[in-house]
Amino acid sequence: MASTLLDDIKNKTFKTCYLITGSEPFLVKFYRNKLINAIVNKDDEMNYSVFTKREINNSDLSNVREIADTLPFFAEKRVVLLSDTGLLKNKSDFAEYIPKIPDTTVIIFDESEVDKRSSVYKAISKYGLVASYDPYSPAKLNMWIGGLCKNYGRQITESDAAFLADRVGTDMFTLKNEIVKLTDYTLGKDAITRSDIEAVTETRPQDQIFKMMDAIGKHDRKQALDYYYDLLKMDQSPILILYMFNRHMNILLQVKDLARMGRQGEASTLLKIPPFTVRNYLSQANNFEAGFLKHAFEEGVNIDEAIKTGKVTDRIGVESLIIKTSGYKR
Fold first, then answer.
1. Dist. CA 24–CA 187, nearest whole Å
2. Which of 57, 133, 235, 268 has a CA that sits 20 to 30 A from residue 98's CA?
């Protein structure tokens, strides 16, 4: 059975090259650093070299090879980090060097954009190891939040962990920062509660959009307008709110259509939305008829055109859109 990144770290049996990638930047950075720290001290400038996208091009690759071919200085291994260099999305002859990397060197690729058809990717897959890290499922994310809170000396219930993720989003960098703030806020307490989360964190514009849509679907015009005014107070421009409105309605319409065809499992890929949000979109879409969603989206497109042609101001245009759609009878 092929080894994993954690196996190599645990056993200290390192390959000559690694690709660490994925759509969750926090996990990519976490495991990249975990691997580097297991091999070499990052303060060891003699044995640790970094090349970034701003620094590397084809002519620089000879320098990478020269460093990689040099024996480590009073250490077992040297590490060369190639971070977002673009080598795995563009054509490069660097693939020819990968089988020649000496056993005393580990080259780590940290790339956000990867073409699996590239020769470099294929060479790393053959001679090294590819580790991909994507966003956690909601359940696993809640467990991670609970574990991180525990590391900071706090307890949190699973429901409150889910509430935190719903409130600030599932970006793990953001969640960690919010947990640090919550730890400071709850000094002297054993647990982080929902009231603590509400006191410390801010409501995201996306959350207000969801609430505004719910109010529109219930024909609660006053509540829908209140959410709109809240968004304006959050320094969200009417044009941006209109964009979010139209995008949201379009996603709801497509999610509903995919669900009708039994293809809701494809929603994340087809609509380019995070997997964890599909459930929320689907739940909300079930509260609307397709005719309503189509009508609301068309109204949004019409208002966008009216604003761009100067027929109406942006603030009044979006306000009239909310008034029209919240009064629409299905």
1. 30
2. 133
pLDDT band (50, 70, 90) for residue 276: low
Three-state SS at 19 = strand
E strands, the chain, in order: 17-21, 48-52, 78-83, 105-110, 129-132
How many CB atoms neighbour CB 140 within 10 A?
A: 10
What distance in Å separates the CA atoms of residue 33 and residue 50, rounded to the nearest whole number?
12
**CA-based nearest residue to 213, from 265, 283, 111:** 283
Q: Side chain identity at 312, as an amino acid letter?
A: V
pLDDT in tens, 52-92: 876 666 667 888 999 999 999 999 999 999 998 888 887 78
Better-scored residue on pLDDT, 275 or 252: 252
Q: d(Cα 184, Cα 200) in Å, to the nearest integer?
A: 10
Phi, psi dihedrals of residue 110, rounded to the nearest 5°: -115, 95
Q: What element of type H or E holds 29?
A: helix 25-39
- 3-state secondary structure string across the chain: CCCCHHHHHHHCCCCCEEEEECCCHHHHHHHHHHHHHHHCCCCCCCCEEEEECCCCCHHHHHHHHHHHHCCCCCCCCEEEEEECCCCCCCCCHHHHCHHHCCCCEEEEEECCCCCCCCHHHHHHHHHCEEEECCCCCHHHHHHHHHHHHHHCCCECCHHHHHHHHHHHCCCHHHHHHHHHHHHHHCCCCCECCHHHHHHHCCCCHHHHHHHHHHHHHCCCHHHHHHHHHHHHHCCCCHHHHHHHHHHHHHHHHHHHHHHHCCCHHHHHHHHCCCHHHHHHHHHHHCCCCHHHHHHHHHHHHHHHHHHHCCCCCHHHHHHHHHHHHHCCCC
209 or 180: whose pLDDT is higher?
180
Query: pLDDT category, 41, cuts 50, 70, 90?
Result: confident
Give me the residue label for tokens 């780590």.
Answer: 108
Amino acid, res. 51: F
Q: Which helix (H) or strand (E) holds 31?
A: helix 25-39
